[in-house]
Amino acid sequence: MSNEKKIQQASEIFAINVFDLEKMERALPQEAYEKLINAIESNEKLDIPTANIAATAMRDWAISRNCTHYTHWFQPMTGYTAEKHDSFISHSKSGEVIESFSGKQLIQGEPDASSFPSGGIRSTFEARGYTIWDPTSPAFVIEYPHGNTLCIPSIFISYTGEILDKKAPLLRSVEALNKAALDILKLFKSPAKKVFSTLGSEQEFFLIQRKFYESRPDIIQTGRTLFGNPPGKHQQLEDQYFGNICEKAFEFMTNVETEAYKLGIPLKTRHNEVAPNQFELAPIFEEANVAVDHNQILMDLMDRIAKRMDLACLFHEKPFAGVNGSGKHNNWSMSTDKNENLLEPGNTPQSNLQFLVFLVCAIKAVYDHSKELRISIASAGNDHRLGANEAPPAIISVFLGELLTRVLNDLEKGKITETTEKAWLSIGIDKIPTIPRDNTDRNRTSPFAFTGNKFEFRAVGSNQTPSTAITVLNSAMAAALIEAKEAIDKKMKNGSDFNSAAVDTIREMYSASKKVCFEGDNYSKEWEKEAEKRGLPNFKKTPDALAAIIEKNTIELFEKTKVYNKRELESRYIINMHNYTKQIDIEARVFYSMAMTRFLPAAIEYLNTLLTNIQLSESVLGKEKSKEIKDLALTITDFCNKLKIESENIETARIKAENISDIKKSGEAYKNLLNETQKIRDIVDMLETLIPHSLWPVPKYREMLLQL
Ligand code: ADP
Ligand code: MG
User: Fold this and answer.
1) How high is the mean pLDDT of the chain?
2) Among 217-231, 401-415, 575-589, whose mean pLDDT is lowest?
3) pLDDT at 453
4) In terms of DSSP bridges, do strands 147-158 and 129-133 run parallel, antiparallel, or are they unpaired?
5) What residue spans of 29-125 are helical by DSSP H?
6) What's the angle, vertex CA 632, arms to CA 628 and CA 635, rounded to 5?
């Protein structure tokens, strides 16, 4: 068991495949480097001569890392990443073949982009799309067994300038937040010059043996099992969570960590999750734009490494019915360039005042824009998980913990929070107590929980990019900060001193939004009723949630923060609805084909065996002896008939849904279709309990979940 081989430490390989600022500084002449940093920091366009110098340095470094090709790496609305590789090959003036890479190629690419979802923004005659280098996220090298590729993180926009991806809105939201937060911080005489959101995404996933994956057309095509009963033993004994990691999973995680470290992804935590064969990997948090890129790279790595190890890594939110699904907990906060976490309670009343302003703005942000947050986590996959007693419901609420709830409630009433602890004594500014950092108070059922110095947005699905959720959070936060600043300014104009103006603003904003705060059990039925009484939205299914993309409140938020314009929002409504209906359409097709070509034939084969047996036993043993077997044959016959009828019904309903052109009606139709498919599943799952194991045409849950 001993391991004598020297293990490579993270620091020995960390970021060797990243062209980070350090490497750039070493590779570029000082003047060019400074110009580049300047362009990054002030969000300005880089001049072509400097871009040429940067591109040459990047090419030389990439070639030293065995790259033959480069690609603009971007995040279109498919929810996945996209890349189109170009070789460095080019002809020199004398006609020789050389490796070249120009500033123009670095800054801008022009993929033939007509096949990416654009939601009607790009008609075919203006099908061009541009990818544009995002220098705030470093270029990196993806290693393939047969040669490496330099990846340049990029945004993706249309010929007419509309955004077609998930990175550009995130960057815009970061900028909106930066501006709004700095305006508030100026009031506190903060030395900060920049504010950015921070993100640590905890990634949950399942691992199964590749051979099982390859025998399950449903997992291959839809990401989840459409059929199957949980095994006798699954997660009842709660012996899996934080249990010791089996060697195969351990090997997988170690391989992933090694590759992730090379790419500068600071993976920190690994553990077993609640369901069998379910695990989690989590990094140290980073600046949100980089953290999102890293999460996307990580998922891609995990997928590839699993394949290489004869495993399959499942990111679907609910790959197996009856056991827990997977989420992506997004830990979110804001930080200044002076390394100050703006959601960290401070040591002085003054810094606590600032903390409370940011805290109450976060509450107001969630209250005002809970619909947009719900949209940001809406997908066919996540619908299976939200509200399923293992994940937060579709109702967006905020958990603060006992202490902060008390502080804010007291503040609202104009009281100083009384406590027995010394740390609680109010000093200096009246009305503001000292708030010790407290992260012992946890509520694992809340979709948006304060955990001491950050919020944890727990409703995001494991398969979703964190990008949209963070874009909405940043934008909503920016809007609340703008509102707070205006309120404070107004009070000061009317003669208030700054502290009183800030305290009164906190009080007003808390009063206006405290309905969204909930400390109890979010999984309970009572909360659903209570939330309804409070008027909080509860969109259980994706099509219902998506309708709010084009509501006035949403459009106002994103136009005010300059994150999306109306046309871009309309296109997102279309794209997201299509993603939903197409996903269910695929599922319905797979339901039909697996039922008809796998389960029905298996059942009929067994039925034939039974009928032969009955005939034989009646002639040898007499009629009355075959009664039980006859009953069984009848049951199977009934199931076979029902299965055929229901499968055909589904196929008919699917074709009908497919032909609905009105997007809203089509969403409704597919939502209903999904409900109907449950009928097929119920029959097949019953058959699974009756038919001999040897005849069952696909691997069972027991095999997939209890072996690795
Ligand atoms: P737990 O959720 O179990 O308390 P941690 O507090 O270590 O675990 O954090 C979980 C995740 O939150 C990690 O990815 C961590 O890096 C991240 N995190 C910690 N502080 C911040 C922060 N200020 N902003 C964003 N993410 C953070
Ligand atoms: Mg956590």
Assistant:
1) 92
2) 401-415
3) 93
4) antiparallel
5) 30-42, 48-64, 103-107
6) 135
In the block, residue with structure tokens 């007499």: 622
Question: Ligand 1 center to residue 152 CA distance, Å?
Answer: 27
- State which of 442, 454, 455 you would mutate to test the pocket of ligand 1, scoring each by most atoms of that ligand within 8 A of its C-beta: 454
Pairing of strands 67-74, 147-158: parallel
Q: What are phi and psi of 600, to 5 degrees?
A: -60, -50
Of 280-284, 340-344, 399-403, the range with the lowest mean pLDDT is: 399-403
- Which two structure tokens, joined as six digits, stand for 541? 């299914």
Domains in the chain with CATH codes = 14-165 (3.10.20.70), 174-564 (3.30.590.10), 579-706 (1.20.120.1560)
Residue 39: band (very low, low, confident or very high) from pLDDT cuts 50, 70, 90: confident
Ligand 1, CB cutoff 6 Å, lining residues: 198-200, 202, 282-285, 331-333, 341, 451, 453-454
Whether the pLDDT of residue 218 is over 70: the answer is: yes
CA–CA separation, 442 and 447 (whole Å): 12
Yes or no: say if 289 and 134 are a contact pair by the CB < 8 Å rule.
Answer: yes
pLDDT(422) > 50: no
Confidence grade of residue 434 (pLDDT, cut at 50, 70, 90): low
Ligand 1 centroid to Cα of residue 30, in Å, is 36
**Ligand 1 centroid – CA 333 distance (Å):** 9
Question: Is 125 a residue whose pLDDT tops 60?
Answer: no
- Pairing state between β 139-144 and 278-283: unpaired
| Host H or E run for residue 195 | strand 195-209
Cα 155 from Cα 564, distance rounded (Å)? 14
Residue written as token pair 């599943």 = 681
Higher pLDDT, 244 or 269: 269
pTM score > 0.90 for this model?
yes
Site of tokens 């995001």: 460
Nearest-angstrom CA–CA distance, 560 and 474: 13
Which positions ≥6 away from 64 have C-beta within 8 Å? none
- The tokens 């579709």 sit on which residue? 394
Of ligand 1's listed atoms, the one at least distance from the Cα of 333 is 24
Say how far apart CA 513 and CA 535 lie, in whole Å: 12
For residue range 5-20, list pLDDT tens digits in order.
788 899 999 999 999 9
Q: Which two structure tokens, joined as six digits, stand for 232?
A: 């006798």
Count helices and strands in the chain by DSSP H and E runs: 24, 19
Return the amino acid letter for 61.
Answer: W
Mean pLDDT of 583-608: 98
Tell me, what's the pLDDT at 421? 42
**Beta carbons of 58 and 21 less than 8 angstroms apart:** no
Taking a C-beta distance cutoff of 8 angstroms, is the pair 340, 346 a contact? no
Local structure of residue 379 (DSSP, 8 states): -
Residue 442 CA, distance from chain mean position: 22
Mutual orientation of helices 566-594 and 627-658 as an angle, nearest 10°? 150
